[in-house]
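Severity: low
Component: inverse-folding endpoint
Summary: output formatting inconsistent between runs
Steps to reproduce: submit the following structure tokens with default settings.
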């Protein structure tokens, strides 16, 4: 919070502070502080340093607030900005990628490149995408559980767009056979938890006797979130649990809820910005504790099929009564995932799961960085450009209400391509980056698919990445 000065600096024609209110004048807001002061005091606790007799000092953990000097030691033990004990599932950089320790490449703006360099990048892009066997199909779905809320006239335009996206994602889960009881849904970048809410709503009446016992919803969000909807489900019997942790440091195999029943896992997410998508893929498919179990199970669970009982010998979920081992995994197998993608300009090479894919195409981190920047043209090609700036947070894990920032290149690039050409190039960049993710999924035994799950009028970031076992692994 920025303050401009004290009451002494206020001109004589400025209104005086209200009776009993703080005498500190907030220059930015052109008014006095409205906090109530103690008896005999002129300033509130926050601005008590303005009084000569005050013994308050700036908190060494967070300069945004002050504390009484004689109570500093006690305050440091309970200050909200203190370093808290790490949870058991926190493992530093476990999902950061094998190149985490490499020196990051310098960020080069497109306007700093010569025309020859830009043309060379475009040639490499077109060559790489020309041989792709991966495309984006149009598949806008919906689910009846969201229908009533979609028709609610009290919802504004923004809420209606979010509901359309949530409805389509739940519809894709249903179509892929991933929507059912007997599993644990892990929502990455959960925000308020609306996607998990609709999954629960879709399942609560399907098998009410077993849903409360065999449905787990794990919400992963780095930031503290207001107006969470999962709090409304605490009395429903469903197992909702929220983890406040960065995906980069999350070891799923150590989460108590997952270890408890070892239910099969389904990864979900609605708009995981940039590198957060790669972190989530590694978290779900490369966690050491269940890496051996991420390959598709021998028989994929159907929507109406309850989960198999944990084998008492192995401690893992098994559909084979005779299956067993001395040392079973600490979590169930991964059945699949459905993640809405966005903000490719926030991707980072050292987090990217498709490094091998890029290298096989003769491309490397330099081209990847440039293509990430060009990817923003897919959503801003017809908008006025603004001064280029690097993203402040490459692993943004935004929730439902977040407006996803568009990174745009400066006007110097405008003369090189027309707006329509820039949009086409941006889409190719996104497709190439996402194809690397599909390739990563194939190396883990899954069949990845890219679909436009809502119309572009709902959101320009309208591509959904899904993954399921190949057909020969299905019953």
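Observed output (run 2 of 3):
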């Amino acid at each position: 919070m920025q303050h401009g000065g004290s009451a002494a600096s206020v001109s004589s024609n400025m209104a005086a502070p209200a009776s009993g209110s703080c005498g500190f004048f907030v220059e930015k807001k052109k008014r006095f502080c409205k906090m109530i002061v103690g008896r005999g005091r002129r300033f509130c606790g926050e601005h008590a340093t303005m009084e000569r007799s005050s013994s308050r000092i700036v908190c060494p953990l967070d300069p945004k607030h002050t504390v009484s000097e004689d109570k500093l030691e006690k305050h440091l033990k309970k200050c909200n900005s203190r370093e808290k004990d790490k949870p058991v599932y926190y493992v530093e950089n476990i999902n950061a990628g094998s190149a985490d320790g490499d020196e990051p490449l310098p960020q080069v703006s497109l306007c700093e490149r010569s025309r020859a360099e830009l043309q060379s990048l475009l040639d490499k892009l077109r060559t790489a995408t020309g041989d792709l066997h991966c495309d984006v199909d149009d598949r806008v779905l919906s689910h009846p559980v969201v229908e009533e809320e979609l028709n609610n006239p009290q919802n504004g335009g923004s809420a209606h767009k979010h509901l359309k996206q949530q409805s389509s994602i739940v519809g894709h889960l249903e179509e892929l056979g991933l929507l059912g009881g007997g599993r644990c849904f892990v929502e990455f970048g959960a925000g308020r938890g609306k996607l998990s809410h609709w999954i629960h709503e879709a399942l609560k009446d399907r098998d009410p006797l077993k849903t409360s016992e065999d449905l787990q919803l794990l919400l992963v969000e780095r930031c503290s979130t207001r107006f969470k909807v999962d709090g409304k489900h605490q009395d429903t019997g469903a197992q909702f649990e929220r983890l406040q942790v960065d995906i980069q440091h999350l070891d799923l195999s150590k989460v108590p809820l997952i270890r408890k029943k070892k239910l099969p896992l389904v990864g979900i997410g609605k708009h995981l910005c940039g590198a957060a998508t790669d972190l989530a893929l590694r978290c779900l498919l490369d966690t050491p504790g269940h890496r051996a179990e991420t390959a598709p199970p021998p028989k994929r669970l159907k929507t109406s099929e309850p989960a198999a009982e944990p084998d008492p010998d192995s401690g893992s979920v098994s559909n084979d009564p005779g299956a067993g081992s001395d040392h079973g995994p600490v979590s169930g197998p991964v059945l699949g995932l459905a993640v809405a993608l966005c903000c490719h300009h926030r991707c980072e090479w050292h987090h990217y799961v498709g490094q091998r894919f890029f290298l096989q195409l003769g491309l490397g981190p330099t081209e990847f960085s440039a293509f990430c920047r060009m990817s923003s043209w897919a959503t801003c090609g017809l908008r006025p450009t603004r001064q280029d700036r690097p993203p402040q947070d490459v692993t943004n894990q935004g929730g439902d209400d977040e407006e996803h920032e568009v990174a745009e290149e400066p006007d110097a690039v405008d003369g090189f391509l027309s707006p329509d050409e820039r949009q086409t190039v941006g889409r190719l960049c996104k497709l190439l980056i996402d194809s690397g993710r599909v390739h990563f999924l194939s190396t883990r035994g899954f069949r990845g698919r890219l679909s436009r799950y809502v119309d572009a009028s709902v959101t320009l970031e309208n591509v959904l990445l899904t993954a399921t076992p190949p057909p020969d692994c299905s019953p």
